[in-house]
Amino acid sequence: MENPGQSTPPPAMVKLKPIEATPETFKEFGQVIEASPDGEEFGPQDAQLDLSRGIPRFYIMHLEERPLKFSTITHHASVTQCLGSIGGNVWYIGVAKPSIVDSSEIKADKGLNIVQSHCGHFYVPPAVDDVRVFRIAGPKFLKLNRGTWHAGPLFKADVMDFYNLELSNTNVSSSIPNSSLKF
């Protein structure tokens, strides 16, 4: 219980230096997909998708006023997600490694801060220190691994359009295991 004469301190602002998104720098969180020659066979350079738990949705997302700051982060526990700016404009995204916990691991919890989402899956919330910010420029897109925590797209322009591949009900169904955290 709060004391009537005390106020809650404001959240601390943490400044993160963006890392250029390359296949090497982003591999813990997903993939950076770049242009390949037409006719090239499917391989590890292509997005390794998991859309098996629903109907895929590929659409253009129109975003306005997404400044380079965030206080919440989310993950999609059932699906990979792909994001890329239309026109190859520079954008940013905050990410943390997936932290979904298999239910069989819960009994072996050795001090982890395991949380159950409102949809039923378990996860360990990422620490602020585990969040990285990436800069994405040019004709490429990101494939986020299933469960990767993310905040964004963020950008300096007033308006940007993005293509987005996720499940058709990712943002509308309470039965889709997603979680959001506020820092």
TrEMBL record:
Domain of life per record: Eukaryota
GO molecular function: ureidoglycolate hydrolase activity
InterPro entries reported in the protein's UniProt record: RmlC_Cupin_sf, Ureidoglycolate_lyase_dom_sf
Signal peptide per UniProt: none
Protein name as annotated: Ureidoglycolate hydrolase
